[in-house]
Design brief:
This protein has one domain: Nucleotidyltransferase, domain 5 (2-Layer Sandwich), CATH 3.30.420. It is 40% helix and 16% strand. It contains 8 helices and 8 strands, in the order αββββαααβαβαβααβ. Strands 1, 2, 3, 4, 5 and 6 form a 6-stranded mixed β-sheet that branches. The chain has a two-stranded parallel sheet with strand order 7-8. The two termini are 26 Å apart. The C terminus is likely disordered.
Length: 223
Amino acid sequence: MALRWLFRAMDKATLGDKSYRFLFEPGPPDEVVSIDCETTGLDRKRDEIISIAAIKIRGNRILASEAFNAVVRPRCAISAEAIKIHGLREADVANACPIREILPDLLHFIGGRPLVGYYIDFDIAMLENHVLEFIGIQLPNPRIEVSGIYYERKYGDAPPGTQVDLTFAHILQDLKLPLFNQHDAFADALMTAMIYLGLKDFTERGIRIPRPRHKGVGEFHGG
């Protein structure tokens, strides 16, 4: 935590474009942003974003009608494996804007609000590659990982050997939420927002998520 605060302070001091200092200012106290992106592949250093969606959550309301949603033209090819996952082909992004033209609107949309996501470190790492090129800093926004909250609500008091399932579909099923078209940036950001609000309600009311009574084999299911 202290190291992250130090990097944040250094980035604020060395920010190339001072018009983006607003990123270091706290957003409205009752707002967070659910974010998701699809990419050309899973290599954080070489692959790039090809679609990105961000949805504001104000209090207990998901502002889906005011969402940020964009397709991006990458500088590298889309891998065959990635196309199988999200269905976006070279032809689908050929006429889209490059990320550099999209970033200003995206950064003004999210501001200094905390970013909510499912395995959000990957999405932010991919986004930060471009933000570093654009204004020379890492994103200073606090991060909220929904799988971590879910784990605490369901498995935080589990005995050793309990089977753990943190898959996106399983979390939605456990919270009795609908599963939309997964691996679409907007749909994933929307489902993540619903998960966040459901877990927020459970946490505020002190409710734990029930577990099957039988023990598993200590297996982890991610992804």
